[in-house]
Amino acid sequence: MEPLRTHKGLVYPLNRSNIDTDQIIPKQFLKRIERSGFGQFLFYHWRYDDDGNLRKDFSLNNPKYKGASILVAGENFGCGSSREHAPWAIQDFGFRIVIAPSYADIFKNNCVKNGILAIQISEDHVQAIINKAESEEYTLTVNLKDQVVYDNQGLEVTFDIPPYPKEMLLNGWDEIGVTLTYEDKIKQYELAQ
After folding, report:
1. Residue spans of beta strands (DSSP E) within 86-174
2. 179 φ, ψ to 5°?
3. Which of 15, 76, 80, 172 has its CB 3.0 to 4.6 Å from that of 3, i.e. a possible disulfide?
4. Residues of the chain with pLDDT under 70
């Protein structure tokens, strides 16, 4: 995976709470086994009408958010099922960072395993970011090493992340990548058997 150290990107505000994984990627699109190709189905029932046409009233279809890489949403993001396809769809669409006041634990862990940083900050800070992103083209910078989110208008918010997922994201490792860091020790152990 691509290491994540500092990321600056356009913010897409999704001013909703309790967004479950079936809303993120509906069940009928879970037939693929590859991790790619799910971005086109992200928020499918909100983005498309029954005839498969883009809904003009759904904010992600607004051209002003084209190329956004930071998704900001309300509390309890990623609740529902444990499907790993949800972070796959988010990443495949182009988002690298998700910011919300709270998450479903399984979703948050699946994000780390797939190279997405899920930042948890206060509801007040999230709402302030959403308000700015709804009213103007708004970018944020995320510095994972220093665990801070900031803009060029004076906003600066720190966030917590446990050391293990932080190291995984900083180095671009998934769980196999972490295991491979012990490759020499594994070989030594096997030779000693």
Report:
1. 97-100, 117-120, 139-143, 148-150, 156-158
2. -60, -40
3. 172
4. none
Say if strands 139-143 and 6-14 run parallel, antiparallel, or are unpaired.
antiparallel
* E strand spans, 15-155: 70-73, 97-100, 117-120, 139-143, 148-150
Quick: pLDDT tens for 149-190.
999 999 999 999 999 999 999 999 988 888 998 999 999 999
Cα 166 to Cα 159: distance, rounded to the nearest angstrom: 12
Yes or no: say if 95 and 38 are a contact pair by the CB < 8 Å rule.
Answer: no
Q: What is the DSSP letter of 182?
A: T
pTM: 0.93
Give the count of alpha carbons within 13 A of 39, CB side only. Answer: 12
CA gap 61, 157 in Å, rounded:
28
